[in-house]
Records
---
Amino acid sequence: MIGSKTKLIGTNMRSINDAPLKIRRDGKIQDIYTMKNRVIFQLHSFLPGIGSLLLLLVLAGGCQMEGTTGPGNIIEGTFSGANGMNVEVELKKWMQGQEGKRGQFIAIDATHTDSNGHFKLEPQRPLPMDFYQIMVEKTKPMVVIMDSTKHLFIQATIPNAGYIADADISGFKAAQEASEYYSVAMPLQDRMSMMRVSMQQAQNVGQKQNLSNQSIELQSEISTWAKKFIEEHAGSPACLGPLEHLDIRPNLATFKEVLKSTSAALGGGAYHQVLSSVIQGEEAKMQAATNVRTIPTGNGANKPRPKKNSRYTVGDEAPEIVMNDPTGKPRKLSDLRGKVVLIDFWASWCGPCRRENPAVVRAYQQYQSKGFEIFSVSLDKEIGRWTNAIAQDQLEWPNHVCDLKGWSNAAARAYGVNSIPHTVLIDQEGTIVATHLRGGALVSQLQQLLP
């Protein structure tokens, strides 16, 4: 889901209002809402994917005011610094899309700060309890949590670029907690995004490996902060924010804990419901991945039957592979003995392989430091297409081999591979522990082998 990878609620996503509907003569439904003196029409569309749902955090219900006075359904404050004077300020809200399309954030209210940096947002419709985005000059975001009972007061310094960090928010404790979380997480996320761009532009393998290691460290730092925040703010609505920086499978227990602790207040929300459904689906997939097909015999002492597209199965020793990398250097599978290794059969022309590559990259980034390696065997015939695909998909591990013989690849023939993508996972002793791993099933196995 996450992603991840995907646009973050803290960055540049856009939101839709929950204004009344109007039925047009052609039968289509359109939203009608007023942003100050402008009337804007927005067709219902854009259904978010699972990854983006992890970032939207649609909550339900309301709370009482916490130590503030004045009417609710208002956000006001003062932005300091030259970047906070006489600038546009928008309040944005998320709405799910329909018919397989992505959701988006669109402004539901807008104003300008005065020459002293003061602003006041007064949405015309009551706000439901939710995560909202405040966007300054369309490029500088921050996250707030509120509903129609809240009157938020915000003081913040507007940076030249990037997320508005270290805001002081009063009026709702959860809003201040969300600000504290994103003030740490977003700068780390921005650094990691820039580092990945640098990896794409790196000129040699050494530079890419160094940047990859730094990226892994940053990802670990973000995950550590997310877990720490959840632990220290148990039960707070703000705890749903850190879930966007955690992968589901390796953190399944954390996801369940957050959902359980917030279910009484937030269980009716779309995010809570969809995430619960996703977790149930992931658990079912994990269970299915551990089930081994067997051939019934009289005494039941049968060996697991190899699945289609594999000459070898769980418990077999993985045959040696010796083949050249793109530079002509021979690489041996046995040189990786002592590590958990994924043998990945793929090709640049294989669409399913290319779509699976991002999941393999994420697994490598997460577990490489714990002793995980990937040995990629390409069934390409043209070295240029092969190496271009390695660069485009950011397959940053060094063990890439190919004999440029297509389906006649010696390793593929030895392993009985007749369709790709195909994977074989071997343990530190070179014994096959799983095959046919896709998506989160790989992470599930790595969790058991490299806790």
---
Amino acid sequence: MLEKIRNAAQYIRSRVNFNSRYGIILGTGLGNLATKITDRTEIDYHDIPDFPVSTVEGHSGKLIYGKLGHTEVLAMQGRFHYYEGYDMKTVTFPVRVMHELGIDTLFVSNASGGVNPEFEIGDIMIITDHINLFPEHPLRGKNYDELGPRFPDMHEAYDRGLIAKAKEIAQRSGIRVVEGVYVGTQGPTFETPAEYKYFRIIGGDAVGMSTVPEVIVAQHMGMKVFGLSIITDLGVEEKIVEVSHEEVQKIGNERQPLMTHIITELINS
């Protein structure tokens, strides 16, 4: 695995003059943030050695390197999911490559279903913690000491300093944000009413099918993490309605400019 990580990173360096500490993973309906990146170079996932390829509608499958504001960033326009059939080491491989390139701060975004009764569709949730319900752990198997410890600490999976700054930015900009715990599940089905209720009982505020494996691997390597969820549907008993992937994308796209503003200000602060 170490050789594959290094080969992928070497190829990316051959395409761009890499000089960034910041990586961004753009989720469903949120890929348009990439249009705000200037002086850009795009690299198709197909071209990167050993890189997986996204199969989900709304995930373009490109690495984009350039400037967000005045700061250089590397953005993944399209991520990988366990439900696509990939194992967890493949799902999280791009995070390993980012670290090899010198990125030490990771921004993750996703669309999720709200199970907190105080949430509304379109809310932006700052992720303060997560609950991992995936059936496979991304650190299962041989540990490579060059990447991180066998038993990494997870008491601050989402950086408190970045959370505090993001709340200040949102308040200053008049953007409503909520905070909460993200529950990660394997998908690809949306949840039943009973499952929504269960996720709330165990301490969740929102549920989705991504993010948690990426954050675990980032923490394994000592990276700082900041996460945002767009609440695209509600799993609260009196508010549950039929939901489709297209509706999730639509709401994500509508709220994307606000998320883009928060992340841009955070990276350039």
---
Amino acid sequence: MKLFEFEAKRIIKELGFPVPRSVLLEKKDDPVRKMKEAGLKPPVVVKSQVLVAGRGKAGGIKMAKTWDDVVRLVEELFNKPIKGLFPRYLLIEEAIPHEKELYAAIIIDRSERKPVILASQYGGMDIEEIAREKPESIVRYHVDPFIGLRAFEARKIGRSIGLQGRLLNSFAAFLQVLYKVFEKYDADLVESNPLGVTGDKVIPLDARIIVDDNSLYRHKEFEKDIEVTGEYTEWEVKARRMGLAFVELDGDIGIIGNGAGLTMTTMDLVYLHGGKPANFLDIGGGASKDLVKKAVGFLMEHPRIKKIFMNIFGGITRGDEVARGIVAAIEELGLKKPLVVRLSGTNEEEGRSILEENGLTAYTDPVEAVKKVISL
């Protein structure tokens, strides 16, 4: 789950590092009144709060030098889509004069099975271009997850991007707070870009946090209405509320698999043979009849999906249970769209018999099944 900038900065502040003073606006709010109540005055930066990168280049971040600018820009940004998303919130933040912009982030290096800190003396909107053109300017430092980031390691990273003195100490303190955020919130990513340098201190001018969806049961504070974020499509919202692991794509062949790896491989097979998947839908291992029924019914109702391919390899998933779920969905909704099933593994013969009794043929060869669904 992606967090808004204002949420990320609030977390950083709560864990002990100062962030720019700001106020959060909804469309109904009076920006001038809220700013005065918070002790803010121009110049300020008005920021669209949408869950996409590149807001600055897309025109979602503006400088307001006067009160009239504030009123005008608030009206403008509330009505300006950023990469197709309209903001529900704006962040009005004090403008911080700064001499330089740095970059700092923590992600997971899956090949090393460790967090890795990324830091650079170059930050700002063009960090992607800098990473391509000057890859040597991006410092990478792996952290032992059993020990965490120690102060001397944070200072070592700061020195490696040319910092020294009090500025080095401020940067090192920020990195340690960033690592606390990373650990406490089970993050896939924490990032500050740009990280501004003002005198002998750093201050996060922007911040991003992405929380691992698998950890959300530990973070009830993020149980917000997922429609608010703009991160998910209408059908992805419906699927999440139904407990389905569903991602919408732009094709017309509905995909159901058991296990993320098999489901992604199934999508690759469809692409390879000239089809276009409409979605990723993983029913997981050990799927029950009711879950299978729910998944099949969901794709039957999706308006853009023209046909469905279900690829099941039974390990802890039982073929007979899957077959009963398919039949239950068809009995309730009817066979509204062509359905091709590949079924093998545990209780395969029983599952195949159940499907055949209800007029469906189950394939054993996934390539043959893919070619069949594409030809329909």
